[in-house]
Amino acid sequence: MMLKTFVSALLVTSMFFFNQALAQHSVTSTMQVHPPVNTLDQAECDKIGACEKSTNSSRYSMSALVLGHKNPDTDSIIAAIAAANLYKARGIDAVAAAQGTPAPETAFVLERFGLKAPEVVNSVAGKDVYLVDFSDLAQAPDDFKDAVLKGIIDHHKLGDVTSDSPLECWIQPVGCANTVVKFLYDYYEVKIPADIAGGMLCAILSDTLLFKSPTCTEFDKKSAADLAKIAGVKDVNALGMDMFKAKSNLNASPRDLIFRDFKDFDMNGHKIGIGQLELISLDMVTPELKKA
């Protein structure tokens, strides 16, 4: 079955190459590994009266946040989950967060592999933050300038975020942020759990449109094959089609459909917003949607 895709999007690509020696694991990393930060559980906090009420979980008060862009897609949310797990394995106290609730496709992926959706966070002032799948201020929380940027994992052009101190920055010209995350698991020799591997596989299938996107690379295909083995997925194409069926859910207002996958960009001082909607068939576009 051929996949028909209805896309209104702008692909912006910037080449930020890894040093070849790094890809061969032949350089010495100077990255700082931080010891885990001890946190109080809820019962202890309540007992000593040290817990403040907030819209976010108490565990976010001390942990670094691993955060994707506004209007998060599958790649953004899964990259946050996978990267947070990797940071923890390296001894960094980090927790996945999101700037919105999962879209239908992402909800399908989370349920399919038994993953928990990250808690929604709208304020990062005073927090240590690792970004995944973006590096543009327009896609960050409004108070991002009051946060401490610790790292970036991305596959887009380098945006306009900045930091006051050196940071980890991993950007590759590939089709999906989770492809870069997969590289980092291999680089740090950390085993990927089966449930997270399944989510990462789905993110690659989503961002590369089942390997049909012009941004798809051989690295994406190789990473997907490796992740499928870890996750125990026998039929990758069938999984991809189930995802796109979930993504094609049109049970929402026209505005919500456009903002389901929407990004803001600042291009030479001009603010541009781009939304896209992907369907398995153009026949799904109803007359009402066409009028809207």
Describe, in short, the structure shown:
This protein is of the alpha/beta class and 292 residues long.
Overview of the structural elements:
The protein is α/β, with parallel strands linked by helices and 292 residues long. 34% of the residues lie in helices and 15% in strands. The strands form two sheets. It has a six-stranded parallel sheet with strand order 3-2-1-4-5-6. Strands 7-8 form a two-stranded antiparallel sheet. β2 (94-99), α4 and β3 form a beta-alpha-beta unit. The longest helix is centred in the first third of the chain and has 16 residues, at 74-89. The radius of gyration is 19 Å and the shape is globular.
Low-confidence stretches: 1-59
Structure annotation, total helices = 10
Mean pLDDT: 80
Number of strands: 8
Strand order of the largest sheet: 3-2-1-4-5-6
Cα-atom radius of gyration: 19 Å
Reading the helices and strands in chain order gives HHEHEHEEEEHHHHHEEH
Strand content: 5-15%
Give the helix level as a range of percent. Answer: 25-40%
Question: What are the SSEs and their pairings?
Answer:
Elements: H1 20-23, H2 42-48, E1 64-70, H3 74-89, E2 94-99, H4 104-112, E3 119-120, E4 128-132, E5 148-154, E6 168-171, H5 177-187, H6 194-207, H7 218-231, H8 236-247, H9 254-259, E7 262-267, E8 270-275, H10 287-291
Parallel strand pairs: 1-2, 1-4, 2-3, 4-5, 5-6
Antiparallel strand pairs: 7-8
Defining key terms:
292 residues, alpha/beta, six-stranded parallel sheet, two-stranded antiparallel sheet, 10 helices, globular, disordered N terminus
